[in-house]
Amino acid sequence: MSRKALDYDQINENVKKAQYAVRGELYLRASELQKEGKKIIFTNVGNPHALGQKPLTFPRQAPFLLDDPNVGLVFPADAIAKAKMYLSYTAGGLGAYSDSRGLPGIRKENAIIIGDSDPELIYLTDGASKGVMQMLQTIIRGNGDGILVPVPQYPLYSAAISLFGGALVPYYLEETANWGLDINNLRQSVRAMVIINPGNPTGQCLSVDNLQQILRFCHQENLVLLGDEVYQQNVYQDERPFISSRKVLLDMGPPISKEVQLISFHTVSKGFLGECGQRGGYFEMTNIPPQTVDEIYKVASISLSPNVPGQIFMGVMVSPPKPGDISYDRFLRESKGILESLRKRAHMMTDGFNSCKNVVCNFTEGAMYSFPQIKLPPKAIAAAKSAGKVPDVFYCLKLLEATGISTGFPPEDDHFAGRGGHACNHGEFQEVQ
Amino acid sequence: MSRKALDYDQINENVKKAQYAVRGELYLRASELQKEGKKIIFTNVGNPHALGQKPLTFPRQAPFLLDDPNVGLVFPADAIAKAKMYLSYTAGGLGAYSDSRGLPGIRKENAIIIGDSDPELIYLTDGASKGVMQMLQTIIRGNGDGILVPVPQYPLYSAAISLFGGALVPYYLEETANWGLDINNLRQSVRAMVIINPGNPTGQCLSVDNLQQILRFCHQENLVLLGDEVYQQNVYQDERPFISSRKVLLDMGPPISKEVQLISFHTVSKGFLGECGQRGGYFEMTNIPPQTVDEIYKVASISLSPNVPGQIFMGVMVSPPKPGDISYDRFLRESKGILESLRKRAHMMTDGFNSCKNVVCNFTEGAMYSFPQIKLPPKAIAAAKSAGKVPDVFYCLKLLEATGISTGFPPEDDHFAGRGGHACNHGEFQEVQ
Questions:
Q1: Residue B194, beta-bridge partner list
Q2: pTM over 0.90
Q3: Residue A432 pLDDT grade (very low, low, confident, very high; cuts 50, 70, 90)
Q4: B8-53+332-431 classified as CATH 3.90.1150.10
């Protein structure tokens, strides 16, 4: 049977070689005994709050709030209850390292919301980027290991792939046939395929058909599918709602549903939360061998734990207030308001672009970017050449000087440079609202 | 002139190869224009709060607090003032990505406290471990690149070094002469030296003399010095207070003070804060070429920014309440109380160990661990052998089964196995206090 990139014998040897005694035989045995109900005193890592050290009052201020008889006057009862629930998940509160995979209670919440998921296969991370980087590092063994990445892409992928010594193999969503072509050139070394759905920066939402094609393709080519789904709440049309790769995969049934290795990524930084600064995210592993999961756990534990406040934001994201809760109406009003404003701006952006001469822009179906195609006149292209710049960079620099608008990443792939594509964040319209 | 590991032409080629368009020519030009006072609208990354999106009320609750006329009844005035100051450092509040190097305002605070420092050379990180890993990845180009690490060590170093494909070269602080020996074996490939001061797990505090020897050694051997100083507040004797490698380096004067490349690491997870779960830390770069700093900035920016609450904890750590502030007395009482309790427990631990038969333990001068030497009787060693385990692991497993105490990492280095050394966190005594 052919090997997949995340089969144990296929992953980066450096990942296996990495020893981490803090999670060695002793720690694992201690965890077993604890599961069996024995009281274990962990002394293997300095984690003062977990061992009862009281946090200083000054930087926190808040600790006393929940015990304050007047807390009910300041915060709604359901928020207080939720805060107490999350604190009950962590022995040492927000100031203690959690499990390197994140707090079990919150991983359980995620599993319940996703449905049909195993909390042991959901790892919380400091934002989705950190999870993407860990998985790419696990997959890429060295030079020549190729990763299929959509063009245009979110630069995290090109940057992380070269950081880990891999090779980026571009593909075009709208030119499905090309995949085979790209693959034929490098079949031996291509190990994984990245999809960004909804697309960043293109904003497209993939249809079930398209996702099935992609999954069949990954199955046939033995590729791990890395599903970047961080914009899943940012959808601005109703014809093609967001559907997760995981749901489509499981609905396809065996052998594909049991064989395609899938990693799904999510974050608290987008959607209606937009809590970028909290750095909260997770990835879920589907059809990944347990030995490989152990290695991923080991490597995650080298940096001890994701930040705990970010984990709790993830918890609140996946289990928001329910109908009947005191905070429900306000939560609904605020979250709807944000999504409706984004949807409105998606239309403003694309209509605005399409009203310009020599500019064509597909409707921004999702994510946070519009991606216009700008036909540059020969003179502009000539001017760019004489300035020693590719036309789109030249255009974007002129736009910056003239308007102060700093556009998104001009695609660096040759196939694209001529199109002068660049991303514009809807956010810029916040200013004029 | 001989090359140093962090000279631009000496670092990991994969670090240079990594392109990150979000910080490409456009972004850099936009930042220039912004410095020149031009109003720039950044649309290159989705950062909603930075563009004015209001955070949801439910997960935060707090946003309104600072505007509440009664906030003064709930929080002391100096805490309110400090909170407002930190919020003024970040356009989008705690929910917006910061600069990839951390909030400039907090990096300035750090620079002022450290003294004689440049905020541009201080990067905030998600805990110290993330910074250590980034620097090791930058230094290690591939197999054979050696890093000198003290034995016994904190397992972060062995784990990260093999993750990045390097080679750990052990050295013994108490056997200074050995360094040269180790080096002579691998002079070509040894690139950096790690010191952990105060020691983890040994607890020793390095003297100025010893630090000068180490710095001279690094100068002569062209080694980058990685100074892990996360336990600098955890010192339990007064004869040898903590002194930073950076201070000793600068006091040594040229050429050494201008030539030795030094990275210093610190965290909010230890000391009297112990805010492990917040994941806040920083590293400072001394004598690192600007081109290399640019590469380190680029790689830091791939994961966007460290978590902002952790950055603010770092700010509060380096600039706590001052005498005369409303919160000063309480802050002093609490922080002193924690350090005195740790000091008391350091004595309890080492006295306790030394009162045991066949156990010798140096006084724990600092950090959070006692590191006893346990002389195992021949029968125990025989029992371990017949169980197919090294004696110290065997001992620690028996201790675990009998008492539920999960000790720290038994050193895996052969030189040490015979000594049966293992770490015990003072924290375990929290239980009986």
A1: B226
A2: no
A3: very low
A4: yes
